[in-house]
Amino acid sequence: MKLVPLFAAAALAVVSSAAHAQATRTWVSGVGDDANPCSRTAPCKTFAGAISKTATGGEISVLDPAGFGGLTIAKAITIDGAGQLSGVLASGITGVIVNTTGAVTLRNLTIQSPGNGLAAIRHINSGPLHVKNVRINMMGGGAFAAVDIAPNAATDVTLSDVTITNCTSPASGVKLNGAGGAIKATLDGVQVTRCGIGVELLANAKVAVRNGNLSHNTTGASVVTGGTASALAFDHTTIGFNGTGLVIDGANASARLSDTTMQDDNTTVCTKANGGVLVSYGNNRIGAACSVSTAALR
Questions:
Q1: Which of 6, 49, 179, 228 is the most buried (most CB within 10 A)?
Q2: Backbone angles phi, psi at 131, to 5 degrees
Q3: Closest CA to 230 of 196, 199, 260, 190
Q4: Residue 276 φ/ψ region, left for φ over 0, alpha for ψ in the -120 to 50 degree band, beta for the rest
Q5: How many structural domains comprise the chain?
Q6: H-type helices in 188-228, by residue range?
Q7: Would you say residue 10 lies in a domain?
Q8: N- to C-terminal Cα distance for the chain?
């Protein structure tokens, strides 16, 4: 007579365990509810609500156009807004904080504020970060760049087809500070316009910029300020109408240019100081004089 209650208790335990299991794929919707299991038929409403129900290494997908809120990522995960107008409205806050040793991928998203946003993406740990097809607008306020990379150990970062516009203060579009851990970054198809500095390198950062456009930034297209082996390479990139094209300042700062167009109409195309190194591979198009370390910058 006691078997039925025992079987019932066992069945209840199985159901309870399944209800709390994390899924490898979860879903969000503008009409969802974070109390839901985040399945396709019962989606959550925010990225923050879905991430707790998504297994490490899993993926959060978007069902329909909406804003899904800021979040902190503390495990390997992919967030994909493909096919929808998938946004993070970050009013007075950072949009996405990445704080994990696991790999994080953010793709097909829009991150913006009404004019008071801090960082759109802030990476403070050591996991690889991949950002693809992301639009950032009116972020980069306070002490933060729009994309602010300051890891606590060595990390790799890839930005592909990322557009950053209208920073909310004279902040950088992309800032890489490897003081806490060396940064190796690739920026492919990245556009930064109407920020303070397009791409800023501080200590211990090595960056390759390909197929980019750094234009109409008030302080400069790119500023490299030394540190430990801070190096920048441009390939097939357009630099135009910035406060200054390039600033290479410091004995450990260097930049190398190939197949790059530089044109500025207001101040100086480029400067180097305090032992900074600026090298041309001889196939660039420069609109004004620019001193270099080896070959003529053409």
A1: 49
A2: -125, 120
A3: 199
A4: beta
A5: 1
A6: none
A7: no
A8: 92
Interatomic CA distance for residues 107 and 25, integer angstroms = 15
Q: Is residue 208 a part of any domain in this protein?
A: yes
State which residues form the domain around 290: 141-298
Judge whether 161 and 132 are in contact, CB under 8 Å.
yes
Q: Is 7 in a helix, a strand, or coil?
A: helix
- The reported pTM is 0.90
* Tokens describing residue 223: 């500023």
As a whole number, the mean pLDDT across the chain is 88
pLDDT single digits (tens) 110-155: 999 998 999 999 999 999 999 999 999 999 988 899 999 999 999 9
DSSP state of 38: -
- Residues across the chain: 298
CA distance 251 to 245: 19
> Out of 44-48, 136-140, 294-298, which region has the weakest mean confidence (pLDDT)?
294-298
Identify the three-state secondary structure at position 284: coil
| Separation CA 200–CA 191 (nearest Å) | 14
Of 35, 85, 43, the residue nearest 60 (C-alpha): 43
Strand partners, 186: 158, 208
| Sheet order of strands, 71-73 included | 71-73, 96-98, 121-123, 147-149, 172-176, 197-201, 220-224, 244-249, 268-273
